[in-house]
Design brief:
Largest sheet: none
Number of helices: 11
Shape: globular
Distance between the termini: 33 Å
Helix content: over 70%
Order of helices and strands: HHHHHHHHHHH
Number of strands: 0
C-alpha cells in the first residue's frame, strides 16, 4: 500500500468521524453533563473499541457477509436503532429532573459515573450502528491492496482509533467547558429533549434505512 493511498484512507475516515452521528452526540451529552473525564472514556469507547470493531469487520469480511445475508444487517440495524431509541427515551423522561452535582463533580474531580461505565456507553453507542462497517468497506475497497500485510492492517486500525477517539474527545472537551455547562444547567429541560429527539431520530434512521 502506497503512502499516498494510506494518507487518503486516513483523511477519508477523519471526515467520516467528524460527521454528526450517535457517537458524536453522546460524547457531547456526556461532556456537558458529567465532565471531561467521563467524556474521554466515552471517546475511547467509541474509537478505541467501537470504531476499531467495525473497521476490523470491514477488513475481514463482515461487510461482504452483510451483502450476501441482508437479513443479518437488518437485524443488527433494528437492534441498534432500538438501543438508541431506549437511550433517547431515558433522556426525554429525565429532562425535567434537576441535575444533582457536588462541588467535586463541578471541578471534574469525580465523574458521576465510573470511567468503565462511560467507556461501555461509548462502545455500545458505536456498536449499535452497523453502518460504519459498510462505510469502512467503501473506504478500504480500492485503497487497501489484497496483498497488504498485518502491518498495514495494524496501521489502519491505529488511524481509526486515533481519529475516532481524538474527535469525540475534542467534542466532549468543548461541551465540558464551564460556560457550556452553565448554559446547559439553565436550559437542561430543553437541551435534554433536543439531545433525546436527535438520538431518537438517528435510531429510527439506522433502523429503517
Amino acid at each position: 500500500m502506497t503512502l499516498s493511498a494510506f494518507i487518503a484512507v486516513a483523511l477519508l475516515h477523519l471526515m467520516a468521524a467528524i460527521s454528526p452521528g450517535p457517537s458524536v452526540l453522546m460524547a457531547a451529552r456526556i461532556g456537558v453533563t458529567e465532565g471531561f473525564r467521563s467524556g474521554v472514556a466515552v471517546g475511547i469507547g467509541v474509537g478505541g473499541v467501537g470504531g476499531v470493531f467495525w473497521a476490523c469487520a470491514a477488513l475481514f469480511g463482515l461487510a461482504l457477509l452483510f451483502e450476501y445475508a441482508p437479513m443479518l444487517l437488518t437485524a443488527l440495524k433494528i437492534a441498534g436503532g432500538a438501543f438508541l431509541l431506549y437511550m433517547a427515551y431515558k433522556l426525554w423522561k429525565s429532562a425535567d429532573k434537576p441535575l444533582t452535582r457536588t462541588r467535586a463533580q463541578t471541578r471534574d474531580e469525580t465523574p458521576p459515573r465510573s470511567l468503565t461505565s462511560a467507556f461501555i456507553l461509548g462502545l455500545l453507542t458505536q456498536v449499535s450502528n452497523p453502518k460504519p462497517a459498510i462505510l469502512f468497506a467503501a473506504i478500504f475497497i480500492g485503497t487497501v491492496p489484497a496483498t497488504a500485510g498485518w502491518g498495514t492492517y495494524g496501521a489502519l486500525l491505529a488511524v481509526v482509533f486515533f481519529n475516532e477517539a481524538l474527535w469525540n474527545t475534542l467534542v466532549s472537551r468543548l461541551f465540558s467547558m464551564q460556560k457550556t455547562r452553565a448554559t446547559y444547567l439553565n436550559l437542561k429541560g430543553w437541551i435534554d429533549r433536543a439531545f433525546g429527539g436527535l438520538l431518537g431520530l438517528l435510531g429510527i434512521k439506522i433502523a429503517v434505512t
